[in-house]
Amino acid sequence: MRGRRRAPRPPIPWRSSWTPVVCLAGAVAIGALVAVSFLVKDVTVVVDGRPMAVRSFAGSVREALDDAGVALSFGDVVQPNTEEDVADGSRIVVRRARPLVLTLDGRTTQHLVTSTNVADALNELDIPPTAGKISAPRDGAVPLSGMSLTVYTRRKVYVVAGSTRIASRTTARTVREVLRRNRIIPNDGYRVSPPLGSFPKDGTVITVTPLRTTPIQPDVLRLNWPALAACQSGGNPLAYNPEGPYYGMYQFSPSVWKAVGGMGLPSAWPVEEQTYRAQLLYQQVEGRWQGPWPSCGHRLAG
């Protein structure tokens, strides 16, 4: 009796002639993935303090910046150098250059800075941010497009007006401003050196000198002015009488002193200036001394 024929066995996949090829291709793909995983790098790029994460195959800092879409301009600062190699986990810092027009104590210069705020920009230019008067807030931003900045440093200047001597720390832009801050307002006809509109640099000595444009008549010059001063104040150019108040050798009131071209207080000026203004007063009242010096005016004839 004949037996039944067995059905043919199904083919075994791994015994196929293609099996080695498929395995080799898979191994190559896995190897490629492993190789790629070793080549790709996670890099942090910080531009003006703002970080961004970048995955890159870059071999250098420059290539990593290209992958991050960061284009460099003239004056930008990059750390590390653009030609250095990049490793996984690298940190690249970019500080962009900003144009800054600086007017320092009246002198204007142009600069490129990488600081993002005014205080840091001044430090970058070796100017202490507390140096004096600044035209923008110290914590204000320096935009990428640039800005103009005006700085007046704190300087020491000296004012000489008669016997008044003042040493002043100032950020003033002009001699006129220095005098105004010290409450010295020159009258018309007074000479100020350096000129009122000039810049008072450190160490400047500002002098205020009254010009004697009105001549004194000879007969007035011959009067006994020392006798009048002795009677009025004991001849003391610094004399002060609170009842008026009255000041100086000839006991001027502030209003009368100003009327004859005096500046400030009479007692702030030397003997010669006080005497000249007293002689002007005598000429203005046409010799009627009883008004300004009722008690002592008669001494002029002594």
Write the layout of secondary structure elements.
Blueprint: H1 19-39, E1 41-47, E2 50-56, H2 61-67, E3 77-79, E4 91-95, E5 98-104, E6 107-113, H3 118-124, E7 132-134, E8 147-153, E9 155-161, E10 164-170, H4 175-181, E11 190-193, E12 205-210, H5 218-221, H6 225-233, E13 240-241, E14 246-247, H7 254-259, H8 271-284
Parallel strand pairs: 1-4, 5-8, 9-12
Antiparallel strand pairs: 1-2, 3-4, 5-6, 7-8, 9-10, 11-12, 13-14
What does this structure look like?
- The protein has 302 residues and is of the alpha+beta class.
- It folds into four domains: 40-95, Roll (Ubiquitin-like (UB roll)); 98-153, Ubiquitin-like (UB roll) (Roll), CATH 3.10.20; 155-210, Ubiquitin-like (UB roll), CATH 3.10.20; 218-301, Orthogonal Bundle (Lysozyme), CATH 1.10.530.
- Helices cover 25% and strands 25% of the residues.
- It is built from eight helices and 14 strands.
- The strands form four sheets. A four-stranded mixed β-sheet has the order 2-1-4-3. Strands 6-5-8-7 form a four-stranded mixed β-sheet, with no helix packed on it.
- Strand 1 (41-47) and strand 2 form a beta hairpin.
- The model is unreliable at 31-38 (pLDDT under 50).
